[in-house]
Amino acid sequence: MALGTAAATASYELRFDSGRICLDLLATTHPEERLDAVEPLRAWISGSGLVPAGTSLVAADTSWLVGFRELRGHIGQLVRGEPSRDSRPFGIALAGVNELARVAPPAPRAAWGDGGSLVRALDGAPSCAALLAAVARDAVELITDPVARASIRQCEGDNCPIVYLDTSRGRRRRWCSSETCGNRERVARHRRRAALARA
C-alpha cells in the first residue's frame, strides 16, 4: 500500500469522539491495533489536535510507537480499574503516567497564517516526550477530577472496549457511537423481536 494511502486509511479509521485525548488514544486498539506503524501514529497525533495542522512529524519513528503504546496501556489500567492503593498494576500505571506528565508539553505560539489571521503553531518541532506529556497530563486531569471520572463509561456494545466520557444530558449514553455500536444493537434487537414473532 502506498504511504499516502496508508495515511488516508489510518486517518479514516481513527476515532476522536471519546471526549478526551487520553481516551482517544485508548480507542486505537479497536477493532484492531491502529498504531501498527509510524504513519498511523503520525495521523493520530495530527488528528487528535496534539499538534496544529501541517506540523511536521518527520522525527517520529518506531520508538515513538513504543512510547505511545506504553502510555496507552497505563491509561487503560487507570480508567478501566477502580483506584486502589493496594493494586500493584494500578500503582505501576499511575507512576508511569505521572513520570511522563513531568515533561513540558509542546509550547504553543501564535503565528500569522496564510489568510492573514493568527493561527496556533508550535515553538519548535515536537518531541515524543513532549507529546506523551500532553496526553499524560490529560489523563492526570481526567482521573483527578471527580466529576469527569464519574462520567467515564465503557461502551455497552457487544465486544466493544471503547471508553468514553459521557457528557450527554441525563448521563444516559450507552454506546461509544450511536452510528456504529448503537445501530448494531438496534438491528440485533429488531432481529430478536422478529425471530420471536416468527416462533
From TrEMBL:
Pfam families: ABATE, zf-CGNR. Gene3D superfamilies: Jann2411-like domain. InterPro entries: ABATE, ABATE_dom_sf, Znf_CGNR. Residues 152-193 form the Zinc finger CGNR domain. This is CGNR zinc finger domain-containing protein. It comes from Streptomyces xiangluensis. The lineage of its organism: Bacteria, Bacillati, Actinomycetota, Actinomycetes, Kitasatosporales.
